[in-house]
Amino acid sequence: MEYWVYLLRCRDDSLYCGVTTDLARRLREHNQGRGAKYTSGRVPVSLARAWRVNSRSEALRLEAGIKKCSRKKKEELIRSADSVRSLGFPFPQTG
């Protein structure tokens, strides 16, 4: 099964990181206020960047790594999808 790790930009310009198997559905859910408690009060949200990975474990490890990043580093990840490899994750594919 294919998984996606994604970064959303919220209405207040904050960033949210999550994991899903269906990126389009999950973005709709976030924008309907049903995606996550954090994003429900910050709609609309837009997809800033996404990475496709091959397993749930890879997705959860990458999500955890991104969540530990500073705001500056997350913005760098958004600008250059390949920069995620600088976190030590060789597996993601750009989405």
Total of DSSP H or I helical runs spanning 4+ residues: 4
Number of spatially distinct domains: 1
Strand content is 15-25%
Low-pLDDT stretches are none
Helix content: 25-40%
CATH class descriptor name: Alpha Beta
Query: What would the CATH topology be?
Result: GIY-YIG endonuclease
- Overall outline: globular
Please tally the β strands and state the result: 4
| CATH 2nd-level architecture | 3-Layer(aba) Sandwich
Question: In angstroms, what is the radius of gyration?
Answer: 12 Å
Determine the oligomeric state from the structure: single chain
CATH superfamily label: GIY-YIG endonuclease
Whole-number mean pLDDT: 91
Keywords summarizing the entry:
single chain; 95 residues; alpha+beta; GIY-YIG endonuclease; four-stranded antiparallel β-sheet; 4 helices
